[in-house]
Design goal:
With about 170 residues, the protein is an all-beta fold. Helices cover about 0% and strands about 45% of the residues. It is built from no helices and 14 strands. Strands 1-2-3-4 form a 4-stranded antiparallel sheet, with no helix packed on it. A 4-stranded antiparallel sheet has the order 5-6-7-8, with no helix packed on it. It has a 3-stranded antiparallel sheet with strand order 9-10-11, with no helix packed on it. The radius of gyration is 22 Å and the shape is elongated.
Amino acid sequence: TGGDSPGGVLVASRKTGDNVLDMVETPDGNRLIVASYSVSHHQVYRTSTLARAGTFKSAEFPVAVAVNESGDVAAGVGGSFTKSVWIYRARASKAFKTVKFADPEVLQPRGLAFTGSTVYAVTGGDRGSRMLHVFSTLPAAPMRITTDRSHYGYGGRVRVSVHLKTKGSQRVSI
C-alpha cells in the first residue's frame, strides 16, 4: 500500500519467464494467466499459492491475454509465422477458435480485450501503424450467395441474393 509502513504481505512468488508482457486474473479470482514472451505457451497459476495450474497452448512469443466475464480466454502471440489468437472456453484445454492476421500485421503487447462474445485485438505492421480488429466468438451462420447471371458486362446491373440459414430463415437481396 506504500507509505512509511507498507501494509501488503508477500504470500508467494514465482518465476514465469523473461519478458512478462501481459497477465490477467480469471473472473472467479482463482487463476492468473500470464503471457511471457520467452515461453511458447500461456502459463496459468493459482492465485492463492502461485502454483502452476496448467497452460494454454499457443505458440512462441506470447504477448497478450484477455478473459471475458464468463471465464473464456483469448491468448495471443506476436509472430506473423503462425496463428495469432487462440480462444478457449472457460476451463477448456483445447481452443475452439483461432485467428490469423494478414502479414505484416502482428498482435501488439497487451493488445487483446474480451467482453461477452467479442474479442478486440490491436495489431501493428512494419511501418508503425496500428489496426483494431473486432471478431466474434459465436459460430458463423451458414450463408449462400447467388446472382441472377453468371457473367456481367462492365457497368451492368447485378442482382445478388444472400440466404442466411438461421432460425426463421431470412433472405436478403442487394
